[in-house]
Amino acid sequence: MDEESVEEAVGLAPSIDFATYWSADTIFIAPNSPLHPATLYTVTVDTTAKDLADNNLADLYTFSFTTTAEEDTIPPTIVSTVPEDGATNVRSGTPVLIVFSEPMNRDMTGEAISIVTETGKDVSW
Q: Whole-structure pTM over 0.70, yes or no?
């Protein structure tokens, strides 16, 4: 997809500020603040979204969801990592993946992650 056209075509009601990022052909919509409790949200992707051949999305697409009325008090966990803990002979170009049990605040989580080499060098995201 043409990422810029898709990002411009995405809408959320009620309106909230959000960031977007991509992984292959998947767009992630990350709210800049927690969603309101017990609220119906509708996501819209307008037909102005285009693929790389400049073809518009065939039809307007919408979907809705309702947030829980309860405040989230359950701390997240790390479900898995790649490479796994203790792995050896990992190729130098291997991306490090961390899978969490729930959506995370991207900025704060990124600031909390670092990689320390055997020499003690700290590498941050």
A: no
